[in-house]
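We keep the chain:
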Amino acid sequence: MNKAELINAIAAESGLSKADAKKALDATVKAVSETLVAGDKVSLVGFGTFSVSERAARQGINPATKQTITIGAKKVAKFKPGAELNASIN
């Protein structure tokens, strides 16, 4: 499912127009993004939790030259599905 298909599904399920569904989706994505950038987590009970994790610097190998390189530390977004979501998938 891509963004346009998700907007159509939101509009159909909620009775909103496609334009309003797009605004709602964009606002939700923006709110989640801003919260993660601030270092907090977003918990949606039954759906899951979005959080930020830090990866430490590590050694890697450049496949073209076979030389050892250092891969820098960075922050990554993570999603942990909730129990209800897992149950509905299985």
Summary: Residues 1-38 form one domain.
